Amino acid sequence: MKKLMIYGMLVLAFTSCKKNDIPAYSGENSLYFALAVDPPTPNTNEVRRDSATVSFGFSFGATDSILRIPVKVTGLPVHAARNYTISATGANGAVEGTHFDFAKKTFTIPADSLSDTIPLILHRTADLKTKTMMVTITLVPNENFVTKMLSETISGTTQVLSLNTFRVFFNDILSEPETWSEYYVGKFTVKKFYLMGKVLNLDLDRFSGPAFSQITFQELNYYGIAMQRYLNRMRSEGHTVYEDDGTEMVMGIGVQ
């Protein structure tokens, strides 16, 4: 089956220090979702988050989407693999085995590692054309790990992130992606979006799954400039491009 692959990016920061300066870790090993804790990748649209949205509307011909959700554990690595436990609950009609599955049944932090990914498979069913479904994945304590990292308020805001639950919303409805910036590419319309894909030969799948999108502001700026040049040329040749509402198609004010 054809799959739409979406990956999360992890950024690990290391500092050098003398061996004697490293204290021995004696606390409990706690699981958490890395996207809610790790700092975002620089120069991208990424933000810390405890959810993701996936739309099949951005993909052509894909029947499934694999979303890899990063998980980490506090403490120091050990020389043995350690299993961890999750639970998954569907909402708004999502049923495991019909609308979603997991690519593996056993979840393990590998030996000498502090991280893993949960591979969630989303199926492109007909009912996704009319509604958005949701899967909530929860990290569950077991004999190897606790889940005492529960939530955190982002500094300077009132936004509270869950560190041990992750929600995935998914549908087959084409709507404005979170990676869209009106400053560069103007008001979102389906006609403009598909035209951008055709004119610039873009892989529109990259706009799907905002939590893991690698679309940067620099790319959006380039897309806006290139598309505005195309629209200007079409107008000068007497083939002005109009939106479906009759207004002339234009890109964002940042590229005019």
TrEMBL record:
- Any one Pfam family match given in the protein's UniProt record, by short name: DUF4843
Do you know which InterPro entries this protein is assigned to? DUF4843
Taxonomically, the superkingdom here is Bacteria
- Record's protein name: DUF4843 domain-containing protein
Give the organism's phylogenetic lineage.
Bacteria, Pseudomonadati, Bacteroidota, Chitinophagia, Chitinophagales
